[in-house]
Amino acid sequence: EKAVNLKKDLAEMQEWMTQAEEEYLEKDFEYKSPEELENAVEEMKRAKEDVLQKEVRVKILKDNIKMLAAKVPSSGQELATELNVVLENYQLLCNRIRGKCHTLEEVWSCWIELLQYLDLETAWLNNLEERVQMTGNLPDKMDAVNDALESLESVLRHPADNRTQIRELGQTLIDGGILDDIISEKLEVFNARYEELSHLAVSRQITLEQQLQTMRETDHMLQVLQESLGDLDRQLTSYLTDRIDAFQMPQEAQ
């Protein structure tokens, strides 16, 4: 009777494993929204816990069959063979569910990381847009133009590492068919805004550089003129001091 019950327990265990495999491993999942992906992650976590909890039942079955085999070798040998099959299937199921759970957790982590990088780069784009707008109405002063140019250049020196991460994380998820529509749309919007603002900022940078160069050249010309006028003033003053008649002066002084 005990052998019959153990045989029944082994059959029930095998049936449960078959159902678990069909439910958790053979279903085709399509993750088209973050909610679907998050639900799948939580479901696989529960599946992993559920499968691992059966480890106690498997151990009890194993111990009981060993005890029976010690008392009734003929019945125990047959059950031991069935037990080995169940143990192999159970271990395989555990490994596969652990693997799928880990994969889904990695995918979810990849999605969250992508969102974080997009937030960082969006904040940078907002800052860049603000700096560009600030260069629109500058006072006609060299210091103001120079400060605006330095401020814009400091933002433009932003490293490209985050954008590289965005591209790689997005492509990894899209290649796996994970949230591909949502990610493609997000990347398209981000890239379009990045290209537009980058070109505008570089164009404004060139304009400011040219404006600053013109102001510097004008300032230099004024300084040269001022020095020349100063020299002439001093020369004329010396002529007057020495009471030199105008007709005795050089033509240019006259």
Automatic annotation (TrEMBL):
SUPFAM superfamilies: Spectrin repeat. Residues 3-64 form a coiled coil. Keywords: Coiled coil. The keyword Lipid biosynthesis does not apply. The keyword Coiled coil applies. This is UTRO protein. It comes from Oriolus oriolus. The lineage of its organism: Eukaryota, Metazoa, Chordata, Craniata, Vertebrata.
